[in-house]
């Protein structure tokens, strides 16, 4: 708790002395405050920032239950309006009223090097996003799948030898190797795992006291950011000298209609953002995949049957993965069920507007609740039950707009994460390689999720892992 308070105090000092984020309007002096959304501004100056820093998922859950789908709060020195649920989330995405430009606390902007996609809006954002999306097509995925399979094979062989281990540290190694392979052309193993340690230090900066000292968490995060940028710069030079079929190679060749491309400065910032987003997204998604299948033997059986029916052996590609319908449902439900992302990046209200008869003042911050939006019982019945069947095509098509928003909602060229479909592909590929040959069981342990920014099982997901000899013998016959 002391750390959370220290983070809040330091961040408030920076936010309140920086015109980029500080509000010039005292929320308590608004005229007609009775027409504002319900909620609380919390303590003077601090607002409700301590509660958010302590457990960001609980923060949104508790206020949804108390105030409903739209509520006001006060975070990082600024009044904020939060939107939860399909209708509210859709309104929050309207660029007529909201912008991401200069909307996030300065430390977040500093860590992401100021001008990457999450921090842009309008035409600048759309232009850059459309270039980035060229690296997230099915044709591009076909080039990445061999990289994913190589990395998976490398670590599966190690796990087979280990037998019993904690899976989260191992999945972090796998994630580091895969992100390094995709974004710099690196190979799996110790060198890439060192890059993973750099990414870990960088990511910790987002929840560190935001004062730049060489020895503290935030200072080390900025140093790690610069190490990643230097690694990216080196990879750009190498890829120009020797083109490769990885994501960086494709991004170097993306073009607008007039033939122009991303500048090197833009490219390095976007690859830095992708390192941040992909590293956690990969190991957390795979952690929950493995945990879910172990906890639900009937789901593991159905998934294994699907793999053995459609892709029992051989290399994978997008065409072969299309038949894995049940695994796709599992991949979707993992991101709905588990508390991975609590909320979007912050936005800023550009003009006074109204939603559900509540006045939303110009200059306020705004945020969309992600996990809470996907746990509304009126949209997803029995939301606390893990049910892949809810993503049968006909049911998925009938969902209200912006009700399934694990990577943000809206159109592809909006603030929806470009990696959404790639994570589905990744889950399928890793699941295939696990289910073709291996069994795993979870020994007694604490599987409760911690209060991290991205919660994970507290005991590291201990596992007993080995070859499925009976299955392999049947395949040999």
From TrEMBL:
Cofactor: heme
Record: residues binding heme: 417
Transmembrane annotation, as ranges: 271-294
Coiled-coil annotated spans: none
One protein family per Pfam: p450
Entry keyword Heme: yes
GO BP annotation list: sterol metabolic process
GO molecular function per UniProt: heme binding; iron ion binding; monooxygenase activity; oxidoreductase activity, acting on paired donors, with incorporation or reduction of molecular oxygen
Keywords noted in UniProt: Heme, Iron, Membrane, Metal-binding, Monooxygenase, Oxidoreductase, Transmembrane, Transmembrane helix
Family named by the database record: Belongs to the cytochrome P450 family.
Name used for this protein in its record: Cytochrome P450
Gene source species: Atlanticothrix silvestris CENA357
